[in-house]
Amino acid sequence: MTGKTGTGRRPDGAAFIIAGLLAVFGAILLWDAARIPETGGYAGIGPAAMPRLVGLVLIVLAGLTALGGFRGRLADVPRQNPVALLWIGGGLAAQIALLHVVGFSVATGLLFAATAAAFGKRNLALTLPVGIVLAFFIYGIFDRLLQLNLPGGVLETLIWGG
Amino acid sequence: MSTFEFLLQGLGTAMQPMILMYALIGVTLGTAVGVLPGIGPALTVALLLPATYGLDPAGSLIMFAGIYYGGMYGGSTTSILLNTPGESASIVTALEGNRMARAGRGGPALATAAIGSFVAGLLATLALAFLAPQIVKLALVFGPREYFALMLLAFVTVSAAFGESTLKGITSLFIGLGLAVVGIDGLTGQARMSFGVPQLLDGVEVTTLAVAMFALGEALFVSAQGGGGDDRVQDIRGSVRMTKADWKRSWPAWLRGSAIGFPIGAMPAGGADIASFLSYGTEKRMSKYPEEFGHGAIEGVAGPEAANNAAAAGTLVPLLTLGLPTTATAAIMLAGFQQFGLQPGPLLFATAPELVWGLIASLLIANVMLLVLNLPLIRFWVLLLRIPRPWLYAGILMFATLGTIGVNPSSVELTMLALFGFLGYGMRLFGYPIAPVVVGMILGPMAEAQLRRALAIAQGDWTTLVSTPLSAILIGIAALALIVPMILRLRGRGAVLAQIAGDED
């Protein structure tokens, strides 16, 4: 869907994908609104009105986007580097999965190292320790000094106490 | 009590040592984060919101206001020394300021930006102090329909009136409105779009959305462009002092910039970027040296920078007096108020005058602090510009997730953060604006509630929305702001139809 360097007014594939996503979002809103009992009260409109309106408009916008896709390109999209996206996406996934297992510092250190890798610094033996130490200090400042409740793991409990 | 007495009382609050320290921490953090390339004021405020969670409301809000002003100052440094401005409002500054820096006049460019920001911030904050009580009086006669009309106007100006495409702006807005539906309906308690997931009943946190869209989206976007590290930081050669001629050319530009910026910020008429573009155009037309524009004219830095800061103070007028955020930054600031259960608006001036006036007075003090922080210490801030990108973005992502984890360390919330990050990336990639999503997300439920209240009062009669002159005029302006730019774009397209093949919509 990206990276093509099309010129002129050819139909734009990306526009159809965007239109599809907008239509799906609109349809979910409409579907959910259909299950809400209509209790308009004095106002005549109830909690279902807003999702219904937004859903309908999104479907109209999807139609307009698709029409625009027939006429030409939606935007000039330069070639993207999917490896970088995978690194950051993977780092976020690792942090979400491991946060409550190994604690804030290690999980966030992983995200730090993965992000640095996405920007070209692949030396994990350097970035991972730096990330963990940095996250550990942030844990100390925010959890202990600024009363934020961050999930701790073995490392945090060992050094900062339970 | 008169405005003046309130302001003096506020200064009394703001001069307390602890409060002064919060303001100092705020402006320092705000400048430090605002200087970082790729980070605008909206993201600065969103990233630093968690730092204020543990404080009391007064201290937290004052620190927050300092962060806001500091972020605006920091952004101008970035755009002068680096040609990739962190905030859209600074693009114009980059136009002339970066040229000046390349010509070895980076020092005076930074000085005129900092002093201009100070002058504009001072004038605009005073204007805010004297205008706010008048608007509060006016707001007391506002009913739900007037509020709804105002919000409608804010929706249109933030999404459709400016920018490259009406369709894309409106699409962004409605994505935000759709996300706002998630959670429990405020009027009836009906669960919507929650699909039986308990964490979704709370709705989408504005800060999660803003951090994801601005920080993650930006990081993903920059990384996917393959680094692109060709932008060079300009050195400050020589003195930061301005010459006599610089002063003479800067003064009128600062004043004009303030006069343009404040009203634009104060009306729901778009944010600081429009103000600085208008100011740039004005300076170009009025300058005695029009040939210098494009090659580093000092008025082209002084005017837009002043307009930019005056507009930033201006946006606080609708935010504080009506509870109406008109920019993404203001939307996040509103979330900052709401974390303490405070709802900005006319009522806040009556129930917590010491808080509101302390906040306004702190802005004046923060402005002075920023001048001191930015002129002598400028070389220190410039060091931050030289952080290599891998470390910089790794640190940004660390803080971005910290905010969400600190508020709610659930995997559902973090997954939402990651998904919105990729949404932000995709929208950036295809040229969809981000700010309307954030504003739609926070204003959507407010507008819905006001509409339903207005209709309930009128027993379901829709004509009530235009039954007072004020609401009718506001809705009329909103309609014009939607239709006129569409016609203009259609006309413009007619003239440049030949060029359209390669151009985007």
Detailed description of the structure:
- The complex is a heterodimer of chains A (162) and B (505).
- Chain A contains six helices and no strands.
- In chain A, helix 1 runs antiparallel to helix 2, helix 3 runs antiparallel to helix 4 and helix 4 crosses helix 5.
- The longest helix of chain A is centred in the middle third of the chain and has 23 residues.
- The N and C termini of chain A lie far apart (50 Å).
- By secondary structure, chain B is mainly α.
- Chain B is built from 21 helices and two strands.
- A two-stranded antiparallel sheet of chain B has the order 1-2.
- The N and C termini of chain B lie far apart (54 Å).
- The C terminus of chain B is likely disordered.
* String of helices and strands of chain B: HHHHHHHHEEHHHHHHHHHHHHH
Low confidence ranges of chain B: 494-505
Beta strand % of chain B: under 5%
Strand order of the largest sheet of chain B: 1-2
| CA gyration radius of chain A, whole angstroms | 24 Å
Q: Which residues of chain A form runs of ≥5 with pLDDT under 50?
A: 1-8
Q: How many DSSP helices of chain B?
A: 21
Main sheet characteristics of chain B: 2 strands, antiparallel
Overall strand count of chain B: 2
Topology, please?
The complex is a heterodimer of chains A (162) and B (505).
Chain A: H1 13-34, H2 49-71, H3 82-102, H4 104-118, H5 124-145, H6 154-160
Helix pairs in contact in A: 1-2, 3-4, 4-5
Chain B: H1 3-14, H2 17-35, H3 41-48, H4 57-81, H5 91-102, H6 106-139, H7 144-159, H8 166-181, E1 183-184, E2 191-192, H9 206-224, H10 244-266, H11 272-286, H12 299-314, H13 316-322, H14 328-338, H15 346-351, H16 353-374, H17 378-385, H18 389-407, H19 411-429, H20 435-457, H21 469-495
Antiparallel strand pairs in B: 1-2
Helix pairs in contact in B: 1-16, 2-3, 2-4, 2-16, 3-4, 3-9, 3-14, 4-5, 4-6, 4-12, 4-14, 4-16, 4-17, 5-6, 5-12, 6-10, 6-12, 6-13, 6-16, 7-8, 7-20, 7-21, 8-20, 9-18, 9-19, 10-11, 10-12, 11-12, 14-20
